[in-house]
Inverse folding.
């Protein structure tokens, strides 16, 4: 398993911080990133997007239910009380915006990638496996709306194939 350099993780920190600040007016405070040791979801709801192209892997935006409800309430401008289809769509859209910002940052570094449509996973009795040999880095954040994490599993695509 190879280590992931800060050059590959910093775009995810920047994207999450900028998106929450610009769209929600929330300033996330970064906690210490770490390597995830299990396939279990960190929190109750996760938006997951695949990455392909010159870099391959995935990005996950994971939140506890209460944080998700507060963030979506702020995003849509009205109080949201449950994890309805609309709430899940909003988490998917925020995940998509963060991934799109990551894609733009990598594009500026001359690394081209494509992002998939978001999948939303609700529940904790599940497994989210990354590609074998690619570690998942958890980037935890704290906000006044609650904690969340961005999980990154990424590597430079091989030239084979």
């Amino acid at each position: 398993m190879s280590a992931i350099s800060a050059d590959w993780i910093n775009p995810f920190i920047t994207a999450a911080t900028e998106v929450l600040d610009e769209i929600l007016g929330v300033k996330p405070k970064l906690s210490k990133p770490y390597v995830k040791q299990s396939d279990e979801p960190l929190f109750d709801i996760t938006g997951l997007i695949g990455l392909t192209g010159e870099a391959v892997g995935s990005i996950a935006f994971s939140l506890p239910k209460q944080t998700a409800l507060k963030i979506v309430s702020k995003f849509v401008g009205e109080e949201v009380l449950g994890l309805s289809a609309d709430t899940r769509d909003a988490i998917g859209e925020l995940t998509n915006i963060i991934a799109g910002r990551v894609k733009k940052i990598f594009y500026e570094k001359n690394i081209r990638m494509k992002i998939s449509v978001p999948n939303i996973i609700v529940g904790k009795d599940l497994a989210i496996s990354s590609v074998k040999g690619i570690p998942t880095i958890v980037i935890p954040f704290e906000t006044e709306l609650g904690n969340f994490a961005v999980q990154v599993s990424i590597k430079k695509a091989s030239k084979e194939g």
About this structure: The radius of gyration is 15 Å. The chain has a mean pLDDT of 90. The longest strand covers residues 146-156.
